Automatic annotation (TrEMBL):
<keyword id="KW-0489">Methyltransferase</keyword>
<keyword id="KW-0808">Transferase</keyword>
<dbReference type="Pfam" id="PF13649">
    <property type="entry name" value="Methyltransf_25"/>
</dbReference>
<protein>
    <submittedName>
        <fullName>Methyltransferase domain-containing protein</fullName>
    </submittedName>
</protein>
<dbReference type="GO" id="GO:0008168">
    <property type="term" value="F:methyltransferase activity"/>
</dbReference>
<feature type="domain" description="Methyltransferase">
    <location>
        <begin position="56"/>
        <end position="149"/>
    </location>
</feature>
<dbReference type="InterPro" id="IPR041698">
    <property type="entry name" value="Methyltransf_25"/>
</dbReference>
<dbReference type="InterPro" id="IPR029063">
    <property type="entry name" value="SAM-dependent_MTases_sf"/>
</dbReference>
<dbReference type="GO" id="GO:0032259">
    <property type="term" value="P:methylation"/>
</dbReference>
Amino acid sequence: MTASVNQVQAELWNGGSGSAWVDNRVALDQMFVPLARFLIDRARDTAQCVPSGRLLDVGCGTGGATLALCAALGDRWQFTGADISAPMIDVARSRAAHARAPVEFITADVQTHEFPSAHFDLIVSRLGVMFFDDPVAAFANLRASARPGAALHALAWRSPAENPFMTVAERTAGPLFANLPPRVPGAPGQFGFADREHVERILIASGWTDVALTAVHFECTFAQADLREYASRLGPVGHALARLAPHERAGVIDALVDAYAPFIENGVVRFTSACWHIAARAPDI
């Protein structure tokens, strides 16, 4: 694992958050299938001009999107997935070995990791770029790792107001937890890239060109049977619940699950993800 300057996120994703994502991997992969498909389409566009090349998946987590990209582009491309979370990378490596997929997964803080210079033809990310404590440094590091003219395609959440499903737990449990941390606009975290102008400034300051943010929406689903575990483990509320005794947790989790009722239909949880498609290009020289 490379050294991380982002200690808060490193501790988070190598602790409770990483474990929660590992344990909920199947539901989360299903939930974000439409986002992976979107990135696959962008990657195929690149592959039409660059039939063989190297792809980096930033914040790859347990590897679902990386492996889907590998299956879509085939063996003429080389694939690397990077994430700060060692537990998630362990799962990604196991999945790649089981699938016999030629993907290299590395535990790395992308903000500081020494990637080969001018190496990647395409850099992608499915909801993995919002967590850097110095995003300009991180994207400058990624730009240095990109070959001249290489494309960047990343997906990031828009605002909490545009993603009501993602704030159900906080709105429901907030009155029950006096110390539930508030969302800080622009801070590292799920909605850290909600502001378009903020993200544009980051990309331009880090040396990328042709920067464009486009609002996109994805209809996401996962099984209702997975909702209780999802609601009780993910995000700030999941952290707060972990500090309660089991008998205290049960009532709060029941209230959380009830609050998701508007998003449930015929045993399936359905919601819309409001994201930015962040596109940019490494300078030609």
